[in-house]
Design goal:
The complex is a heterodimer.
Chain A (H helix, E strand, L loop, with lengths): L9 H12 L10 H6 L4 H25 L8 H23 L1 H7 L10 H11 L4 H31 L1 E2 L2 E2 L14 H22 L1
Antiparallel strand pairs in A: 1-2
Chain B lengths: L1 H51 L5 E4 L4 E4 L5 E4 L1 E6 L2 E12 L4 E9 L5 E8 L13 H4 L11 E3 L12 E3 L5 H24 L10
Parallel strand pairs in B: 8-9
Antiparallel strand pairs in B: 1-4, 2-3, 4-5, 5-6, 6-7
The chains are: A mainly alpha, B alpha+beta.
């Protein structure tokens, strides 16, 4: 089994990196545009997360397969071409099978093309690693990204509407915080969650 | 010359091969999902049209194609539905496209059975600026068309006419002149052509000009 220089299993290390050590939104502060835009409710956040997982895994596979033929000056072109192809497929799929969600997400699905998380993993992992490790890496990073979106969306939907997955959870007497559904709510929630994660990390270290 | 050609091929063959593969993949996906996307669009169109023509019980697409010239001058096949209640025709529904500030604006427009008055319009898709251009979705602008004669419409600035008067004069949205113009332009461009086509097919009478 492949191992890192310090003897750790490469696959386990990829999973730990994607889910915690370098979790894109909370540790690397990457992909914050969709993070702020689609987390007013859990459903769109989850859909966006699934789209990112699909694109990450597929583009990682393709880049990994091409890695031996990559030339430095066409590298970014190839990454962008690959990512754009899979984003378009995800967008078409949503428009065909989830038209209401596709409309709710608006331009943010096509904008996955410029999501730094995907090009980061293509450059940092898939262009140097085998297909299996690239898949594990794409899955871990995608799931990490999705978890981050869902954490923020849960807080915002709950406080903003008193609901979760559009089902009433808090008592009807609870005054919904309308601001949580707006950009200000996104920034505030993101800031508080980041602060909490940093606090926990420092305590642990 | 040969050396530079060899260099070009060596450096870019992968990009060329990947481009062809990605193109094929996209073409296959589009071929597989395209019909379903079109069905979804038609469903959305008829559901919006239901709000414009509440008396309609069904929207039947015309069996023969209705060809019109688009804003770019190219001939295109228009999406036209006959709105029916029982056996009676209660109106006509079709899609028109305008050139907005950010992107194309797709509108569903409904008229009465004689194609003499508009029942109104709704926005199928647009990427206009929130708070400005996207006010074409709001009642303030849309209500000016509901019940108005089927054009031609003229756009005037705020204060130049009363927006509550239902006539061919449309008061623009403040701060969204391009989006306001796009709607009026789309109506003026498509409505006469569609009316002419429906008259030629004998689906509406010739004496219903406003």
């Amino acid at each position: 089994m492949a191992a890192t220089p310090d003897g750790q299993n490469l696959y386990a290390e990829a999973v730990a990196t994607g889910l915690w050590r370098e979790i894109p939104v909370f540790r690397m502060l990457l992909g914050t545009c969709p993070t702020l835009a689609v987390t007013a409710a859990i459903k769109p956040a989850l859909t966006m997360g699934l789209c990112v997982i699909f694109v990450l895994v597929c583009s990682n596979i393709m880049v990994s397969l091409m890695r031996k033929g990559l030339r430095p000056h066409v590298r970014i072109l190839l990454f962008t071409l690959t990512i754009a192809t899979f984003v378009t497929i995800a967008d078409l799929f949503l428009r065909a099978y989830q038209p209401v969600m596709s409309e709710a997400l608006g331009p943010y699905v096509p904008l996955i093309i410029v999501n730094c998380v995907i090009i980061w993993r293509a450059e940092a992992r898939a262009s140097h690693s085998g297909v299996l490790l690239s898949i594990v890496d794409g899955l871990a990073m995608g799931v990490g990204f999705t978890i981050a979106l869902c954490v923020l969306a849960t807080i915002r939907e709950l406080l903003g509407t008193g609901r979760l997955f559009e089902i009433q959870v808090l008592p009807k007497a609870f005054p919904a915080w309308a601001a949580m559904g707006m950009p200000v709510g996104a920034f505030l929630t993101f800031g508080f969650v980041l602060g909490f994660i940093n606090y926990v990390s420092r305590k642990r270290s | 010359m040969l050396d530079s050609l060899k260099h070009f091929v060596r450096e870019s063959w992968l990009l060329v091969v990947a481009s062809v593969l990605c193109g094929l993949l996209l073409a296959a996906t589009n071929a597989a999902l395209g019909p379903r996307i079109e069905v979804n669009k038609a469903l959305k169109l008829t559901s919006l049209a239901g709000g414009l023509l509440p008396a309609a019980q069904a929207f039947v697409p015309l069996s023969s194609p209705v060809e019109v010239k688009g804003l770019d001058g190219k001939t295109e096949s228009a999406v036209v539905f006959k709105a029916t209640a029982g056996n009676a025709v209660v109106g006509w529904v079709f899609k028109v496209v305008g050139s907005g500030f950010a992107d194309r604006i797709e509108l569903v427009v409904a008229t009465d059975a004689s194609f003499s008055r508009l029942a109104g319009y709704d926005v199928v898709s647009s990427s206009e600026t929130p708070g400005f251009g996207d006010q074409i979705k709001d009642a303030y602008y849309r209500n000016q068309f509901a019940g108005a004669p089927v054009g031609p419409f003229s756009l005037v600035g705020l204060g130049a006419a009363n927006e509550r008067d239902i006539d061919s004069t449309i008061v623009a949205i403040s701060g969204a002149t391009i989006s306001s113009t796009a709607v009026v332009q789309a109506m003026n461009h498509y409505l006469p052509q569609l009316k002419d086509q429906l008259q030629q097919k004998g689906l509406i009478g010739h004496g219903s000009n406003p």
